[in-house]
Amino acid sequence: MRTAQLIQASGLSKDTIRYYEQRGLIPEPQRSSNNYKLYPKSTLELLDFIATAKQLGFTLNEIKNTLHLFYDEDLYCDSAIDLLKNKLMEVSQTIKQLETQKKQLLGEIQYFKHKKSNK
Amino acid sequence: MRTAQLIQASGLSKDTIRYYEQRGLIPEPQRSSNNYKLYPKSTLELLDFIATAKQLGFTLNEIKNTLHLFYDEDLYCDSAIDLLKNKLMEVSQTIKQLETQKKQLLGEIQYFKHKKSNK
DNA sequence: CTAAACTCTGGGGTATACTCCACGGTCAAG
DNA sequence: CTTGACCGTGGAGTATACCCCAGAGTTTAG
C-alpha cells in the first residue's frame, strides 16, 4: 500500500500520517526501490485503532503507550480495562468541573439580570 | 503599588502579570523615575476580574474583548448576559460530548470484560 | 521529451497560557 | 563600598496535534 492509498483509506492527511510515524505510533514502512513508502495492511488497522482511541479521549502519548494492546489485544484485557477505567474517571472528573462552571455561569447570569432590573 | 505588592496581592507570578500586560489585558503601568512600574489599585481589581472570568471558562482572548465590562459594568448588562449565556452553551456542549465519550468508554470496558470471560 | 502528478525531506508556523533564564540596572543596609 | 534584594528586558522553552511550504527526485501520459 502506497502513501496515497493509505491517505485515501484512512481519511488522514499525509502530514498526520507522517506525524504519527515520527511520534512512533505507526512503524516505519518499507521502501520500494524508488524510496516510496510501502505500508502493510496492518498500518491501516492501526490507524483505525488510533482513531478510536482518540475518540475515547486518549492523547497520542497515551495511545503510544498502549500499542501493545493493538498488537496483542487478547493478552491484555485486564490492562485494557484498567486504562479505560482510568480514562473514564478522568472524563467524569472533567464533567464535574464543567458542571461547577455551569453553576457559576448561571449565578453570574442571575447577578447581571438582577443588576439590570435595578437600573 | 509596585510590582512586588501586586504579585503579593493578586497571587499571580511576575511573569503572568507581565504576560497579561503584553497581551493587553491590563494597562501599561506608569513608571517611577527609576523605571520601576507603578500600578494603580484598579489593576488589582482588574486581575481579580480576569481570574473570575478565567474560572468561568473564558480564554484570555475572550476576556480581552470583554474588558469594557470591567470598566463600565453597569452599562453592559445585556452584553454581559449574552457572553455568559454563550459560554454556558459552550460548556453544556462540551459536557454532552464528554457524556458521549463516557458511554463509549463504558461500551469498550464491557467489550473487554466479555472478551476476557471467553478466554 | 515534456509537463503533470506523485512522492520524499526538512523545517517553520499555529494556538494557549504561561514558565524560566540570563543579563543588567537600582536601591538599601552595614 | 559592597553585597544582596528588588526590578526590568528580551528571548527561549513547554505541551498538543497537527498544517503548510519549498525544494527536489520519480513516474506516467501524451
Care to describe what's here?
The first copy, chain A, has 119 residues and is mainly α. Chain A has six helices and two strands, in the order H-H-E-E-H-H-H-H. In chain A, strands 1-2 form a two-stranded antiparallel sheet. Chain A starts with a helix and ends with a helix. Chain A binds a DNA duplex (30 and 30 nucleotides) through helix 2.
Task: Write out key terms for the chains shown.
2 strands, mainly alpha, 6 helices, homodimer, elongated, DNA-binding
- Overall outline of chain A: elongated
> DSSP helix count of chain A?
6
What gyration radius of chain A follows from the Cα positions, in whole Å? 22 Å
Q: H/E series of chain A, N to C?
A: HHEEHHHH
- Tell me the helix content of chain A: over 70%
Strand content of chain A: under 5%
Q: What is the tally of beta strands of chain A? A: 2
Oligomer: homodimer
Structural class of chain A: mainly alpha
